[in-house]
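CORE FACILITY INTAKE
Project code: CF-77B
Contact: R.S. (postdoc)
Sample description: multi-component assembly, two entities in total
Requested service: structural model of the whole complex
Turnaround: standard
Below are the sequence entries exactly as provided by the requester. Do not edit them.
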Amino acid sequence: MPGSDEGSAVSRRGLLTWLLGTSLGATLVAALYPVFRFVIPPEVAEAPVNRVLAAKLTELPVNSGKIFRFGSRPGLVLRTQDGAVRAFSAVCTHLNCTVQYRPDLQHIWCACHNGHYDLQGKNIAGPPPRPLEAYKVDVSGDDVYVTRGT
Amino acid sequence: MKILDRLWHTLDERLELAPLIDFATHKEVPQHRHSWAYYFGGLTMFFFFVQVATGILLLLYYRPTAEAAFESVQFIVTRVPFGWLIRSVHSWSANLMILAAFAHMFSVYLLGSYAKPRELTWWSGFVLLLLAMGFGFSGYLLPWNELAFFATRVGTDMVSKVPLVGGWLLKFLRGGEEVTGATLTRFFGFHVAVLPMITTALLATHLAFIQRQGMHVPEGLEEEAKTRRPLRFVPNFMMREGVVWLAGLAALAALAAFFPWELGSKADLFASAPAGIKPEWYFLFMFEALKLLPPHVLGIEGELVGLGVFSLAGLVWFLVPVLDRGSSSGHRSRAFLLLGWLALAYIVSFTLLSLAGVFK
């Protein structure tokens, strides 16, 4: 019957369109998936750094601070007015800038958005939402060692 | 002239160019008391052309690696003949392009030209502004100096706050967890290949929309536009636009020559952010607002609230042809007009106050 022929022709066309559409979709996915994977760099296996020689006591006078390299990120070691040596992550908890010790204020300061932290690394003024991560400090002779995560 | 005539005849015979010429000679620009607003888009395009030309020249010497980038720019500005001028023109023209784009956008907004049937023109223009800011942000890092390094750390960290895909975007932009030489190489690729390709295509589309629809006559000025004789696009409007471009070139030349763009000091990945660090002027209004926010607002981190509000404001701005429902029938809402003036007042006042050093 002409009617059923027409019906089957439409459904045949529908099937072909569906096949073409899904094939195009699959081709697109097959082409884009490697691109999405390619743009994210592979994890580089790095030996985890948990302890570094951050500074020499002689280069760290009272009321001063120094940025040191802790793995791939910067750390801040400082010596307070009363001689205590402390170390923190130097990455501001606000928007990722590198903080510094301000001898005039006698606390830690971030220049990017005027964030202030006290000598325990606690955020006391400005926009930073969290304290700085604190590290453990060992002084052995003239060497200041900083350890993470203990 | 005979050779030109023959050349024209040869081309027209093969390509049927006569209708194009016919279209160009019949194109008219309406005249009314706000016709000055029609020149800003062209001025923005002029600075874009300058960017393309000077950018290609800089490519002859620039080297996109963390080890060589700063030194190569130093070489350009100190040793290459007129290198200081080319680099200074590129930096200044980038800023003037953003300024002209802002002037264009606000004049279009305040005159209600975004209304139906020009929604697509507004949206393509909005994306072009984002692309221009992307050019600014990616180009800022290329000299690999101290300011650029921290601006990129902060800017990409903001992107990481995007819900769900933030972490992926951060790695995509930085080429790793941190801002390193890998970031510089990526930004170079975005700046000289990806962004120019998308911008050129979108700019062509934006211009095609305008050619197709003609200039918009703002609400309330229709009568005035009817009584005044329109300006022929070729050659009258083009000549006037040429004068505007010359003024732009003069301003650019004066700024580049008298205030050469500074290079600063080379980025040190393990140094504190220097005191007085600031982003480019067109990010200042957001920068100062983020500084003023408290650490937490209603239990949410302050910067998240700030970034959320700016994203929402951007979305409203983008969607204004749809949100301002009356605009399609020529009755734009007073509320949206007021919103435009408020946005302009906020951006201008915060930028000027920041430049004047009012925010500590």
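Facility notes:
- The CA atoms of residues 9 and 43 of chain A lie 54 Å apart.
- Strands of chain A lie at 51-56, 64-70, 73-79, 85-89, 100-102, 107-110, 115-117, 123-125, 134-140, 143-147.
Invoice: internal transfer
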